[in-house]
Design a protein that fits this description.
- Two copies of one chain form a homodimer.
- With 112 residues, chain A is α+β, with helices and mostly antiparallel strands.
- Chain A has a single domain, classed as Arc Repressor Mutant, subunit A (Orthogonal Bundle).
- Chain A contains six helices and three strands.
- The first copy, chain A, has a three-stranded antiparallel beta sheet.
- In chain A, a hairpin with a 2-residue loop joins β2 (61-66) and β3 (69-74).
- The longest helix of chain A has 19 residues, at 77-95.
- The radius of gyration of chain A is 20 Å and the shape is elongated.
- Chain A starts with a helix and ends with a helix.
- Residues 96-112 of chain A have low confidence and may be disordered.
- At the A-B interface, α1, α2, α5 and α6 of A face α1, α2, β2, β3 and α5 of B.
- The structure holds a DNA duplex (30 and 30 nucleotides).
Chain lengths: 112, 112
DNA sequence: GCAATACTTCAGTGATCGCTTAAGTATCTG
DNA sequence: CAGATACTTAAGCGATCACTGAAGTATTGC
């Protein structure tokens, strides 16, 4: 049973590659087969399969094989964990903008 | 000049490590020195410095040295790019389209 | 001046990453 | 059944990763 930390590690890692993000963007338009996902990417089918494996390990993507075709689709749960993590620190991202100067000033009485 | 793709690659990568996320969480409470950031982490100072470098290359963290102390703080811009990317695909993550399609199908017997 | 402090830099190491090629295994289609 | 299709699996390779430890360089306080 993966912890939130595991999910965050794997999901952020999965999204850190532009080929994998392209796969995710394609899947956001609806389910697709492995070859459909591979078509626009300039790499071997084997490489694409490996990217899909990374996405599956993160939980972002789920797939099912029918006959000889594996169909992939998005799974929302891991992204919700990521969004939640970001939301928890959003105020800090937005609120503490460019205050180093102020802190240094209050600490040293001047800006160096 | 880094493209959005570069920013996404580096920011997602930066956040894919739990030690780096711990640094980010600490910085969300306010600026901190390198040693302050290192204190709760069970690794060498050198390792922490390398994590901070990764965060700086992504643009998430900015730092300034005064005397012998380097003070780090969050920079919101890269996170906004990440939030924007997620927002663009949120509907798909949440499965609204799929469910809407199913609902319409079960109601009208077809997708309009 | 001199020791403690706060990093900084560098070389090395084992693990993981993103890919390739090659050789599989099922599953359709005619 | 034969050949095409859609993956699947495995080995290997150069690059990057997350560290460590050792040796540096500025500052600061006494």
């Amino acid at each position: 049973m993966p912890t939130d930390t595991d999910v965050l590690d794997r999901t952020f890692h999965a999204l850190s590659d532009s080929s994998r993000r392209a796969i995710v963007v394609r899947l956001s338009e609806g389910p697709a087969s492995v070859s459909e996902l591979a078509a626009p990417l300039e790499m071997s089918l084997s490489a694409v399969v490996q990217h899909i494996e990374v996405l599956q390990k993160s939980g972002i993507v789920r797939s099912e094989k029918v006959g000889r075709v594996r169909t992939c689709q998005l799974e929302p749960a891991p992204m919700r964990v990521v969004e939640q993590w970001i939301a928890q620190h959003r105020q800090a991202w937005e609120g503490r903008f460019d205050r180093l100067g102020e802190i240094l000033k209050s600490t040293y009485g001047r800006t160096p």
